[in-house]
Amino acid sequence: MSDIATAPQGPEFVEKIVPGRFEGKTAIVTGAGSGIGKAVAIRIAREGGRVVAADWSADRLEELKSEHPDLAFVTVNGDISQEADVTRIVVAAGLVVDCLANVAGIMDEFQPIHEVTDAIWEKVFAVNVTGMMRMSRAVIGLMVAAGKGTVVNVASEAGIRGSAAGTAYTASKHAVVGMTLSSSVMYAPLGIRVNAVAPGGTKTNIVANFSSQMGAERLGPLMQVVLPPAAEAAELAAAITFLLSDDSPNITGVVLPSDGGWSAI
Ligand SMILES: NC(=O)c1ccc[n+]([C@@H]2O[C@H](COP(=O)([O-])OP(=O)(O)OC[C@H]3O[C@@H](n4cnc5c(N)ncnc54)[C@H](O)[C@@H]3O)[C@@H](O)[C@H]2O)c1
User: Fold this and answer.
1) What range does the domain containing 60 cover?
2) What is the pLDDT of residues 132-165, one digit of tens each?
3) Is the CB–ligand 1 distance for residue 28 below 6 Å?
4) What CATH number does the domain containing 31 carry?
5) What sign does the CA torsion over 198, 204, 206, 207 have?
6) Number of domain units in the chain
7) CB of 104 closer than 6 A to ligand 1?
8) 154 lines ligand 1 (CB under 6 A)
9) Would you say residue 12 lies in a domain?
10) Active site residue 187
11) Whose CA is nearest to atom 41 of ligand 1?
């Protein structure tokens, strides 16, 4: 029997802009061309922030700009797993960064470990782990010099449980949680807060193919039983911008699920 009917079904989410919340701040948002990253970029810009929107899809960045001519985005077309591209993103920010939203990420194909190919493992880790490390290394270095800053890393339900994806994605998102906790401890005395948001199912363009029969047979039924309805990307942006903003001054080292209660089941 499915528990979907018992998942929270609140009123439709209406984004409430907090005017000026990011006034005077520069925020880098990775994965800003689509889904959760796009929603974060738009929200910060609407709340007065200067947004450096990075994505490896030039078309999506063009779309972001043309859909929102009223908002001034600095767009950078680049791959966060490449050091030279990370440098371009940080330079575009003007080497002063108040907020970093590490949102860009890719899925695996739901393989258990004995079916994982080197190609999938390396691709998923290059983006989800190495890319996030490279962005954080470059930006937190600047934040240390400035003595302030906030970072939000997008993890996943797969960062806190074993049944939400294949081995590669699950391991990569557990690494995101580890990076978040380690960094929160290291930088708390320097005025830099580092948190994570762990989304459950969210309506975006993320590609998730069940290429593994074993993965589909084992995880499919488990996910059907406990998976609450998919959220809107703007609902995730609400949690992410809260943790990036001055509304969460005493919060660091938190992995906040935004998943309709999935992680509580
Ligand atoms: N959608 C979900 O159900 C869900 C659930 C849990 C976690 N997440 C996480 O949320 C984050 C955002 O995903 P989404 O669902 O919005 O997906 P999405 O595919 O809609 O958006 C991700 C964006 O990141 C960009 N991107 C990917 N790799 C990149 C790279 N190496 N360099 C620069 N840009 C890159 C893509 O071009 C895309 O525009 C990811 O980290 C994902 O793992 C998503």
Assistant:
1) 19-258
2) 999 999 999 999 999 999 999 999 999 999 999 9
3) no
4) 3.40.50.720
5) positive
6) 1
7) yes
8) yes
9) no
10) no
11) 105
Measured from the Cα of 128, ligand 1's closest atom is 41
| 201 Cβ below 6 A of ligand 1 | yes
Any domain includes 229: yes
Q: How far is the CA of 206 from the centre of ligand 1 (A)?
A: 6
The residue whose CA is least distant from atom 36 of ligand 1 is 31
Residue 164 Cβ inside 6 Å of ligand 1? The answer reads no
- Whether 217 is in a domain gets the answer yes
Give the global pTM: 0.96
Q: What's the pLDDT tens digit per position in 203-254?
A: 999 998 889 999 999 998 988 877 789 999 999 999 999 999 999 999 999 9
Q: Give a yes or no: residue 263 inside a domain.
A: no
At 49-100, the pLDDT tens digits run 999 999 999 999 999 999 999 998 999 999 999 999 999 999 999 989 999 9
User: What's the CA dihedral at 27, 15, 2, 171 to 10 degrees?
Assistant: 0
Give strand pairing partners of 196. Answer: 153, 255
Of 22, 169, 187, 242, the active-site residue reads: 169
